[in-house]
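ok so heres the complex, two chains, lmk if somethin looks off
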Amino acid sequence: MLEWFESMGHWAFISASYAAMVIAIAIDLISQRLGRSGLTLRLQQQRARRRLRKGI
Amino acid sequence: MQKFWIWLTRFASPPVFYRVAGLWRPWLGLATLLFGVPALIYGLFFAPADYLQGESYRIIYLHVPAAWVSMLAYVAMATAGAAALIWHTKLSELAVVSIAPLGAGFTALTLLTGMLWGRPTWGAYWVWDARLTSELVLLFLYLGVIGLASAYGDARRGARAAALLSLVGLVNLPIIHYSVHWWNTLHQGSTVRIFGESSIDGSMLWALLASAMAAKFYFAWSLLGRLRLQLLAAESEKAWVAKALNLEPADA
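and the predicted structre for the whole thing:
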């Protein structure tokens, strides 16, 4: 696999670098989005449990 | 001077910072695209090939900006760490926690793109060269800060412990920067100089500087996003958080 990759020449290394950047940005964006939706869900559940305890 | 401190204290208030950061983010995102897209397209397809390295040098447009941000992020983290230890402000503690994963990401990208550049240039993905090793130490420092911040039951104590580690790790930054001067390294010396002539042609330089600006804008954009999220989590019982997330108030 590595031999095949290296045999593709300089553009293989350049493409892999740019792909790494795209993957890094995607991970960052997804983690921010998941973080926000996860937090919203957690707080919604927290508030729902509290209301349930109070019998509202 | 007193007015400045009053302004700074007001700005450090979580709801004010959340709102102001939200106003800044779209502009930072736009600046990232305006600088980054033309620079990377030009660097990838239109910049002339290097006389010695050929096409592989095009990795410079990712590697160098990522490396600069990896160090800049550490300075920002240590500054926030100092503020957290001196003034115990929640915002600076959360800044330490928010910067660490971003800094680790930029450092990992620096190391990865460096390895991909090293193989066609030096014939090896990795050598235990002073510049490469000190950058790897930087990654370990970021991982240490992340680990330490989450190792305590009390998040604020964890953040302060991480702040202390970030200050101790500052010693690594001059080592990274001057490693190519202090030791005989395989890694090339500084390409861009603030004082003195840069050893890169103007036709390649502008795209490098533009991509470096884009990386900094992206860092700021992402940091504000993460910091806003951390603020929401830390202040989850406050009424302003419920309003920001369109939730019913906590005491409803």
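quick notes: Chain A is about 90% helix and 0% strand. thats all i got rn
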